[in-house]
Amino acid sequence: MVITVDKLSETPLYLQLRAQVIAGIAAGELRPGDPLPSVRSLAEDLGINLHTVNKAYATLRDEGYVIMLGRRGAYVADAPADPAAGMDEAALDEELGRLAVEFKASGGTRAAFVEAALRAASDLPEGA
């Protein structure tokens, strides 16, 4: 899996990294037990501060997507045994509602929002 960042984006770099790792997990490109690049090597490869990568990994750890094994690095965590440990439908509804409001406020239409949501969902692997 190739990880990239857009240094000109308004999205903080650590959130870009977080989103790409989660997308890799969702797409099956990253499986439980797979190692992530070391903080130092990923920071060097991307030309960003190692604290930025560390913050992304710590966020992913706190959310249960990765486990940190000290100097041995970061690894994709096992899927939670309890599906409720992840985002539940109420949280999803809340997040989609927030996104819909922001999209509308920026001039988007309901139809365009629904179309974008359907495109995003169609990228999920079967059974997800």
CATH homologous superfamily annotation of the largest domain: Winged helix-like DNA-binding domain superfamily/Winged helix DNA-binding domain
Count the beta strands. 2
Order of strands, widest sheet:
1-2
Helix percentage range: 40-55%
Order of helices and strands: HHHEEHH
**Which CATH class of the largest domain?**
Mainly Alpha
H/I helix tally: 5
The proportion of residues in beta strands is under 5%
Mind summarizing the main beta sheet? 2 strands, antiparallel
Question: Residue-averaged pLDDT, rounded?
Answer: 89
Account of the 3D structure:
The protein has 128 residues and is mostly helical. The chain has two domains: 13-76, Winged helix-like DNA-binding domain superfamily/Winged helix DNA-binding domain (Arc Repressor Mutant, subunit A, Orthogonal Bundle); 87-122. Helices cover 51% and strands 5% of the residues. It has helices spanning 13-26, 39-46, 50-62, 89-105, 110-122; strands at 66-68, 74-76. Strands 1-2 form a two-stranded antiparallel sheet. A hairpin with a 5-residue loop joins strand 1 (66-68) and strand 2 (74-76). Helix 1 (13-26) packs across helix 3 and helix 2 (39-46) packs across helix 3 (50-62).
Précis, in short:
This protein has 128 residues and is mainly alpha-helical.
Keywords:
single chain, mainly alpha, 5 helices, 51% helix, globular
Strand and helix map with partners:
Layout: H1 13-26, H2 39-46, H3 50-62, E1 66-68, E2 74-76, H4 89-105, H5 110-122
Antiparallel strand pairs: 1-2
